[in-house]
Amino acid sequence: MFIENLLNLLKLKGIKQVELCKKIDIPKTSINNWKNGSMPSIETANKIAKELDVTLDYLVNGEEKEDCTTWQQKTNKK
Q1: How far is CA 28 from the centre of its chain?
Q2: For residues 73 and 28, what is the distance between their CA atoms, to the nearest angstrom?
Q3: 3-7: long-range pairs with CB below 8 Å, 24+
Q4: Is this structure's pTM higher than 0.85?
Q5: How far from 75 is each of 36, 69, 78, CA to CA, in Å?
Q6: What are the tens digits of pLDDT across the range 22-70?
Q7: How many CA atoms, within 13 angstroms, populate the side-chain half-sphere of residue 1?
């Protein structure tokens, strides 16, 4: 589910896979590894969620709980 959600978000936001890798400083091969069944570390998943402005729950599960906010929403509340 993670990789499908990631690829859908990238498409919706018009971000290329290589661009995401560069922005969050991970190897270009990472997304292909995830396509083949591996998973990112929690640290990397958090970086992805932050970069795409979604919750980690949304990135992993494809849905948000009612009490979840995006990174941008959390930042704007401060």
Answers
A1: 15
A2: 29
A3: 3/31, 3/34, 3/35, 4/62, 5/58, 5/59, 5/60, 5/61, 5/62, 6/31, 6/34, 6/48, 6/59
A4: no
A5: 34, 10, 6
A6: 999 999 999 999 999 999 999 999 999 999 999 999 999 987 665 555 5
A7: 8
Cβ(30)–Cβ(7) under 8 Å?
no
Residue given tokens 């292909």 in the structure block: 32
3-state SS, one letter per residue, for the chain: CHHHHHHHHHHHHCCCHHHHHHHCCCCCCHHHHHHCCCCCCHHHHHHHHHHHCCCHHHHHHCCCCCCCCCHHHHHHHC
Which residue in the block uniquely carries the two structure tokens 């729950």? 57
Q: Which residue has the tokens 């998943």?
A: 45
